[in-house]
C-alpha cells in the first residue's frame, strides 16, 4: 500500500499508469486468493462412491481421460475381474453352495490359487471358461447372496463385458473407469475451474484405517458432500472396525477443539498428502471442458432440504448392532454391524463436529441403480424392523433411508443450517452433471457467506 501511496505523489501520466497497473495486479491477486478458497470435502464410508464422484468431476469439469489415462486402467479392471472370481469361489465354500458343473469348480480352484499379488491379465482364451463359471446356476445363487460377503459392486458389470475387456486391443471406456474399484489411501485435493471459481475437491479414504487422517483436511471447508450408499441396508461390516474408528475420530476432534490444529492445509496446494484413488486420477487441475449432453438428461431423482441445529459434541449412538442379522460362516461377515447404521453414525459424527458449524452439508444417497436391482430380492424390514413400507419398492426404501440421515442431522441443537440431499448414481455422468449443477450454487453461496462477500 505504501508503494501505491508514493505513486500518487507523482504527476506524470506514466505514474498514473503504474498506479492503475498496480491496482489491477492487486485485484488479480485478491481474486486469485479468493478463488482458491472454495473447498469441497467429500466424505463417507468405504465404497460409498467418493472417488467415483471425483472421476465424474474430472469428466465433466476437468481434463477428462486421454487414451494414455484409459490404458492405465487395464490392469485395475482385470484385477477387479480376478478378485470377483476369487471372492465368489470363497463365498461358494463359505455359504455351502454347490456348483452346477464340475468345470466351474475347477475354474474356481484355479483362480483361488492366485494371490492378490500374482493376479494376471485375464486372457481372451479364458473368456469361455469364465463365462461358463459366471453362468453356473450355483454361482448365480451365490451372486444373489452378495450381501452376505464382500462382493465388488461392479462384479456383474465386468463379468458381462468379459469379451470386450479381454480383447487384445482393449481400451477401457469411461464407464469401465467409473466402475473400477481401488480403495483410496491418503488425502488428495483436486482443483477444478468451474464458473470462475476454483473448486478444491478433497477425496479421502473411507476405510477404518483411513478415517483417522480426515482431521487433517477439516480446516476452511466450504461444503461437505457426504456420500452414503443406498444399497448397503442389507450389508454388514466387522464390528471392531467401526467402534475403534469412531472412537479415534471423536478423540481427534476433541483434541482439535482444545489444541491448535495438527496440520494446516494450504488451499493453493493441489496435493495435501500423497495417495490416489486411481491409476491416473492425477492431473489435478481441471480446466473447464464443455461436453455435449446426452439426449436424455436425467433430473436428480429428488432434492430435499432440511433445517437443523448443532449440539456441542457428537455422539456415537448410531452404531448399534443389527438384531436381525444371524451370523453366516463367511469370513468377511464376522461381526454384525449393519453398514447403513454405521454410515448414519459416521454422518452424525461429522455434522455434529464443531469444525463444520458453518459448513453447508450436501448428502448424496448414492447407488440408486444398485438399490433398484436388489430391492426385489432383499427386504428392508428384514434388516430394519421399524420399516413398515411396502416391500420391493425402491422409492419407499430410499425415503426410509433418507429419514435415517435426516434424524442424524436433526440431532444438531445449537446452530441453524441447511442440509441438501440428492439421490444419485455416481456411475451415471448425466445424473452427476445435473446434480452438481444444482449443488454448485449452494456451495458458492456458502463460500460467499463465509467470507462476508454477500
Ligand atoms: N452401480 C454403481 N456402482 C457405483 C456407484 N457409485 C460407486 N460405485 C462403484 O462402487 C465402487 C466403490 O466406489 P469408490 O468411488 O471407489 O468408493 P469410495 O467411497 O471412494 O471408497 P474408499 O476410497 O474406499 O473410501 C466402485 O467400483 C464404483 O464403481 C453407483 O452409483 N452405482
Ligand atoms: Mg475412494
Automatic annotation (TrEMBL):
GO BP terms, alphabetized? adenylate cyclase-modulating G protein-coupled receptor signaling pathway
Q: Where is the composition biased (Basic residues)?
A: 285-294
One MF term in the entry's GO annotations: G-protein beta/gamma-subunit complex binding
Question: Where, by residue number, does Mg(2+) bind?
Answer: 51, 184
| Region span, Disordered | 254-333
Q: Which residues form a coiled coil?
A: 13-40
Name the UniProt key words of this record, in alphabetical order: Coiled coil, GTP-binding, Magnesium, Metal-binding, Nucleotide-binding, Transducer
- Annotated GTP binding lies at 47-52, 153-154, 178-184, 203-207, 366-369, 426
GO CC annotation terms, alphabetical = cytoplasm; heterotrimeric G-protein complex
Q: Which SMART domains match?
A: G_alpha
Pfam families referenced in this protein's UniProt entry, alphabetically:
G-alpha (PF00503)
Q: What is this protein called?
A: Guanine nucleotide-binding protein G(Q) subunit alpha
User: Which source organism does the UniProt entry give?
Assistant: Phallusia mammillata
Annotated gene? Gnaq-001
